[in-house]
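Shipment paperwork, digital attachment
Item: protein structure file
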Amino acid sequence: MTRIGLEGFLLSLSPLPFLFPFIDSGPGFPPAWHMLSASLAAVACFWCGLTLFRKPLVGKILGSLSAACCCAASFHLITTSPFAALSASVALISIAFALLDFRFNTFTIIRTDHQERSLQRAWWATMTVPAAAIFSLIMGMSDTLPSNCIVALTSVISQALFLQWVFAAKLKRYLLIPASGCMAIGWFFLSSTAGNVTAVTLAISLLTLAVLPRKKVLPDKIEHWWNILFNNQTRILLTTFLALCITGTFLLLIPAATRSGAITAIDAAFTSVSAVCVTGLVVLDTPHDFTVPGQMIILLLIQLGGLGIMSIATVAMHVMGHRLSLKQEYLLSSMADTDHKDLVRSLAIILKFTFSAELIGAVLLTSLFYTSGEEFLQALWRGIF
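Attachment content:
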């Protein structure tokens, strides 16, 4: 499906900012400026969905405004929870990159008629409802009234877009789904079982997804979804570093990686990001708090982050006799700032020089640790590290 479905996603997602002021807000109603920020974020997100493909510049500005207002609405959570601050920073940077890199192709609109665009909006909007429900569950607000209202409103918007597709496709036999769905949500709110609203909206979404056709709008488009992440120099850097940081975080959370058996998620994430970015900043004592397997994980993150996953993979593929595609070679040449023909040779020189310097440093440090009284194996490992 083409990216026009992003309109449906943004429209259905627009009520979600109202959830942020209520997360860990304590008893009582959130401050007025938190609710005002959430309202601005919701309105900006809604209009971003309406204008992103019609007036891209206006849509990008509204999308940026919505992201900034979401951070303002959850300011109390960001300032008290390091994990929330880290998550908000990653989300904000990702949204900024996505908006900056957004390109609108008018050829897409020309090749799709109104019915097909309505189908895509309905698909994306319907899939947003389970995402909103899961988010409220993660935030611990799945049984609260604000969460029920927000998820219900998300479902109503998705059903409205589904209704638009029904009229565009002239399939009036499906009118019963949005009508009965909205009636069920309203009945649960008026009754004493309002806590079941989330379950009702999920059931309606699954029914809607079962009814929507699954044909591709552009059957000749053979590019895989993951190619979107690797067909641009900026996205390659962001994707590989983010994936490496997340993988390192989960590996450091393994009990065998630390002497105490477990560390907090924020400490594992900080250590992983610091190792990948080769900053040298630590919140834990590496030789005392981490076991040898944990130190090996950190060392691997430092090597992959410093040398670059793509550089190592390129040389490894060349050694094994595999060739890169012209597109991959062009992107890697841009990243390495080298000539297209000298790509592999330049990367090989970088790796040889790096490993040679590390070997000399490891030998010198090992000899110094050993002469200071440490056992040979311990001195060897510390010298290598």
